[in-house]
UniProtKB/TrEMBL annotation:
InterPro entries noted in UniProt: ArgE/DapE (IPR010182), Bact_exopeptidase_dim_dom (IPR036264), Peptidase_M20 (IPR002933), Peptidase_M20_dimer (IPR011650), Peptidase_M20A (IPR050072)
Protein name: Succinyl-diaminopimelate desuccinylase
GO molecular function, one term: metal ion binding
Domain Peptidase M20 dimerisation: 197-318
Enzyme class, broadest EC rank: hydrolase
Needed co-factor(s): Co(2+); Zn(2+)
Length: 426
């Protein structure tokens, strides 16, 4: 049986692919808080078990957000081939962000119209999950004597860092040799793009401190918000222009993300915000902000932090009574798979054959679960490749095109064939 027959079988399953995507969208796995994970995991697991996969459900007990009310469930399905060989793993996150406002249709309706499946998570990334399932099913139906093994997983919490999903599983050995050799994550980065990795990220919470006093006599207190204003001014005038001038050799998309960036994620000072009455007249003694710093492979995390701390220390010398506290919230180093890696070459071959053009090699501006496969699983042969337009992720009226899913599924099937029949465990 030739690989072209497998690709034809994928095309023949177009309606099933669209229906599977719609069914997945109709399970509202909103994170936070982490709803309906078990339902979605079992829906996927039941389908794959019927196709001969061994299925396990893993709860990430003790991970951030895990509770009896919102347990962090993951599903991993594995099908062994007829003889030894490498293992190819398709990993998709099952969680989605909240719908938000501005929808013109039911965000969890899974509506199909004009060759598109609409709904929260259709693009990011239940369409990619469905494409990987259909690609694998077509492959094993037409090539049942394949060597090695194939795995498909649906994992929790990617939208909040992946610690209840891929990070937990990687810590248990699910993303390491000798169990797994190649990983494809069907994130929506356009069907002709191979995503090699992502920039780094450092989140931190900074508090400036003051002294409370009556608001009619602010000279008797010390306003923490004014201190925070000085910090924001320094960021705006000093740090942000320096970061914008830095450029990376990483092929990050969009081009604006090829520089380092600093985002002010949130800010609060003074009295609590959940009170609807008039505020009391006080000088605020605390102000807090959260920064989201994205950095490049050319930068060291130690230097990234030192730039911010250096500004804070200088302000402490320049401003009377300026004091601060800083807390690390989250950090991930940049990662980028080599363009000559087996999984990259296999997917590139699929793009050339299915779409008749050369692939684009890109790097994501934000992180995704490749970070855990790389840093915890110590598995380098990992990329993101899947259907969907990244700009539609997290937007109202999110959708994924059926044609794009079919094409991506064909590429995945072609890559699977290449990795299993031409790969090795070396």
């Amino acid at each position: 049986m030739a690989i072209r027959d497998v690709l034809r079988a994928v095309e023949d399953r177009r309606d099933d692919l669209a229906a599977l995507t719609a069914d997945l969208v109709r399970i509202p796995t909103v994170n936070p808080p982490g709803e309906n994970y078990r339902d979605c995991a079992e829906f996927l697991g039941n389908r794959l078990r019927r196709r001969g996969f061994d299925v396990v459900y893993v709860r990430a007990e003790g991970s951030p957000g895990d509770s009896d009310r919102y347990p962090r469930w993951n599903v991993v399905a594995r099908k062994e081939g007829s003889r030894p060989g490498p293992c190819v793993h398709f990993n998709s996150h099952i969680d989605v962000v909240e719908p938000g406002a501005g929808w013109t249709r039911n965000p969890f309706g899974g509506e199909m119209e004009d060759g598109r499946v609409y709904g929260r998570g259709a693009c990011d990334m239940k369409g990619g999950l469905a494409a990987s399932v259909v690609a694998v099913e077509a492959f094993i139906d037409l090539m049942p004597d394949f060597p090695g093994a194939i795995e498909i997983s649906g994992t929790a919490d990617e939208e909040s860092g992946g610690y209840g999903g891929v990070a937990y599983l990687a810590g248990k050995g699910f993303f390491s040799k000798p169990r797994v050799d190649h990983v494809i994550i069907p994130e929506p980065l356009n069907k002709d793009c191979i995503c090699l990795g992502h920039r780094g990220v450092w989140w931190a919470k900074i508090e400036t401190k003051g002294r409370i006093a009556h608001g009619s006599m602010p000279f008797l207190g010390d306003c923490a918000v004014r201190h925070m204003g000085a910090l924001l001014h320094a960021f705006e005038c000093e740090l942000i222009p320096v970061l914008a001038a830095r450029r990376t050799e990483m092929p990050v998309i969009p081009p604006g993300a090829r520089s380092s960036t600093l985002n002010i994620n949130s800010i609060h000072g003074g009295q609590r915000e959940d009170y609807e009455g008039l505020p009391s007249p006080c000088v605020p003694d605390s102000a807090r902000l959260v920064i989201d710093r994205r950095f490049l492979m050319e930068e060291r995390i130690e230097d990234v932090k030192a730039e911010v701390i250096g500004i804070l220390d200088r302000l402490a010398e320049e401003r009377t009574d300026f004091s601060y506290a800083i807390e690390d919230l989250f950090e991930v180093l940049p990662t980028m798979t080599d363009r000559d890696a087996p999984v990259v070459r296999a997917v590139a071959t699929g793009i050339r054959e299915v779409m008749g053009r050369e692939p684009n090699y890109v790097v994501s501006p934000g992180t995704y679960d490749q970070k855990h496969v790389d840093r915890i699983g110590r598995l380098k042969d990992c990329i993101a490749y899947g259907p969907g337009i990244l700009d539609l992720a997290h937007q109202p009226d999110e959708y994924v095109g059926v044609d794009d899913m079919v094409d991506s599924a064909k590429v995945m099937a072609r890559a699977l064939h290449e990795l299993l029949t031409g790969g090795s465990r070396a």
